[in-house]
Amino acid sequence: MGMTERSIIAGSKRVYLKEKAIAGFLLLCAMVSVVTTAGIVIVLLYESVGFFKEVSIIKFLFGTRWEPLLEPRSFGVLPLLSGTLMIVVGSALIALPIGVLTAVYLSQYAEDRTRTILKPVLEILAGIPTVVYGYFALTFISPLLRQVFPSTHVFNALSASIVVGIMILPMVASLCDDAIRAVPNTLKQGGYALGATPFEVITQVIIPGAFSGIMASFILAVSRAFGETMAVTLAAGATPNLTINPLESIQTMTAYIVQVSLGDTPAGGTEYQTIFAVGALLFFVTLLMNIIANRVMHHFREVYE
Amino acid sequence: MKYKAIIAFTCAMGLLIVGCGKSGSKDHVPGVLTGGVSIDGSSTVFPITEAVAEEFGKVHPRVRVTVGISGTGGGFKRYAAGETDICDASRPIKQREIDKASENNVAFIELPVAFDGLSVVVSRKNDWVDYLTVDELHRIWMPESTINTWKDIRPEWPAKTINLFGPGTDSGTFDYFTEAINGKSQYCRSDFSKSEDDNVLVQGVAGDKYALGFFGFAYYIENTNKLKVVPIDNGEGAVTPTETTINNGTYQPLSRPIFIYVNPASVQQPQVDAFVRFYLEKAPELVSEVGYVPLPQLVYQLCLKRYSSGITGSVFSNRNTVGLKIEDLLPE
Amino acid sequence: MTGDNSGFSSGLKRRRKIENIFRIISLTITWVSVIILLVLLTHVTLQGFQRLNLGFLQNFPSRFPDKAGLKSALYGSIWLISLIFLISVPLGTASAIYLEEYGKKGILGKFIEINIANLAGVPSIVYGILGLAIFVRFMGLGRSVLAGSLTMSLLILPVIIMAAREALRAVPQSVRHGAYALGATRWQTIIHHVLPASTPGILTGVILAMSRAIGETAPLIMIGALTYVAFIPEGPMDSFTALPIQIFNWASRPQAEFQTVAAAGIIVLLGVLLLMNAAAVIIRNYFQRKYKW
Question: The domain containing residue A46 runs over which residues?
Answer without folding.
Answer: 3-54
